[in-house]
Design brief:
elongated, 12 helices
Length: about 190
């Protein structure tokens, strides 16, 4: 402990164990403080601990936009985790679409794939699919979606020949595999 620690809050203490204990004592509704720690603390474990306590999606979206790697991606994944419940199970179209749009803002492809493949509402599935711009994630939608229309829409957007070939070789559904009969896969 340094002399300066006597005049600092526990959150700013030089000892990482003291800072970790201070973070553990913070309530989830102290999102601004937790976000500051997640963004700025010198110790990755403490940044992750603070991030995992945040429930406020706006604070998490801010971290996904501003924090350094890997905290930015962890915050995006956490936004996806929190909002995916609404997007997957909501029967209210506005609620589901708002959740999908917020997830798309932070670029959580993993969560968008899950929503495109599993959401109750077709509009939520389509919105998630529209937000995906990565061929690998689109290929995941093809493989994971039980909705053939969604799978075919994802397939139509894939441009990477290697991704298309991998799907053509492994696709068990005949209706999807037939899409390759007139394809230009080389």
């Amino acid at each position: 402990m340094s002399i300066g620690d006597l005049f600092r809050s526990k959150i700013k203490n030089s000892d990482p164990e003291v800072r970790a204990a201070a973070v553990a004592e913070l309530a989830a509704d102290q999102a601004d403080t937790l976000a500051e720690i997640a963004r700025d603390d010198d110790d990755f474990k403490i940044r992750r601990l603070a991030l995992e306590k945040i429930e406020d999606t706006e604070a998490l979206i801010g971290l996904a936009r501003e924090a350094a790697a890997p905290i930015d991606q962890m915050a995006a994944d956490r936004v996806g985790l929190i909002l995916s419940r609404e997007a997957l199970s909501s029967e209210d179209e506005a609620t589901a679409l708002q959740a999908v749009n917020r997830i798309a803002e932070v670029g959580s492809n993993r969560t968008l794939v899950q929503i495109a493949a599993e959401a109750k509402l077709v509009t939520a599935k389509r919105a998630a699919l529209d937000a995906i711009g990565d061929d690998r994630a689109l290929a995941d939608v093809v493989r994971e979606s039980g909705d053939e229309a969604v799978a075919k829409s994802a397939l139509d957007r894939i441009v990477n020949q290697g991704a298309l070939a991998a799907i053509a070789v492994s696709e068990p559904r005949k209706s999807i595999a037939l899409c390759f009969s007139n394809s230009s896969i080389k």
